[in-house]
Structure formats: structure tokens, C-alpha cells
Amino acid sequence: MKLYLVQHAKAASKEQDPQRPLIQEGRGELQKVTEFIKPLKLSVDYLWHSEKKRAVQTAELLAEAVEIKKAKTLREGLGPNDDVAVLKDELNTA
């Protein structure tokens, strides 16, 4: 199994916007990443993201650059304070 971990692109501060969406700089940096990976023709089974607005926006942009065989979906357990043990156990059995 191959596992790609990607952190969300640069987001607004809580003071700027409590939902912390991506800022223009973050979108620009992510655009460079997608331009780099698109020619690689990466294929993934799933693209998981947390419910955070910045994570959803990052996943949407990444989805344009990779082939997703099964689903792009919100995934519980990917939040910044979530316990990774549950996800670790699931990945170990995959």
C-alpha cells in the first residue's frame, strides 16, 4: 500500500476568518503542487480529508490533479486533535 499524506494549503488565521479557508497564497502554492503532480498521472483509491474548510478546499484542488479510483470523501479521525490510533489500526489491516 502507498500512502500519501498532504497537509492543507496555507489558510487564513482564526482572527481573519474562524472557518480558516485557504488564502490566495495557499491556493497559489497548491496550484504549483498540482501542476507538478498532474503529469505524474498519480492514481489513488481514496482521497480522504477532514471536515475543516481548508482541508475540503485542498482536497478539491488535489482531486483535479490525481485519478481517484473509488472516492474523495470526508473522513472522521483526520482533525488536528483526533486520536490517530484508530486510523493507524485500520491502515495496518489494509
Automatic annotation (TrEMBL):
InterPro entries: His_Pase_superF_clade-1 (IPR013078), His_PPase_superfam (IPR029033). Pfam families: His_Phos_1. This is Phosphohistidine phosphatase SixA. It comes from marine sediment metagenome.
